[in-house]
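Researcher: I'd like a structural prediction for the single chain below. Treat it as a standalone chain; there are no partners to consider.
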Amino acid sequence: MTEQTDTQQAKAGAIIVPVTLFEQNCTIIWDEPGKKAVVIDPGGDVPKILEAIKQTGVTVEKIWLTHGHIDHVGGAAELRDALKVPIEGPHAADKFLLDNVVESGARFGMTGVRNFEPDRWLDEGDSVSIGGLTFDILHCPGHSPGSVVFYNKDLRFAHVGDVLFAGSVGRTDLPGGSHATLINSILTKLLPLGDDVGFICGHGAGSSIGQERMTNPFITGEM
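Model: Treating it as a single chain, here is the predicted structure.
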């Protein structure tokens, strides 16, 4: 099952493919009309992701990772092998997580996962592109030390991983997590993007910066 998500301009498209028992939002984003695509956070269920790619009719050229938790990277190595494309992200501060994918998967009964290293680590100020779309990289630690956000200024759109959710924020009780650091990332990196910026997050429904600024209790209490 895929969920269609429209960006604000016709030059891009996206679908969300919920994967694994975590219902993680594996996201396929592409440019129009070239249909060059990226898969963001292939957490598992790789055959399901490959079928969504086929149905959408896009050509995947890259895999991007927002952070290193098992529910977001469990299928990354397998998908890289299947598509013969590079993995970009997350920030190198999450290397300890990618070095322990097998161990993390075992705790949740996930088999067939592999430790891996991306072809490119990402840092604040970097940019990544797919087709005619360019996304700026924001390093937003707190949920994990190496969490990054992908932001396209022209589309007024971001993929924020597990940094921010509709009505909530990422959990910070996992190794390397820090609630204070996460809130600082949101206040200093995401809110300044502008209220009109819409986002897809790692789980559940997306939202906008403006909606979260006004209603998210984890944010309103800090302002």
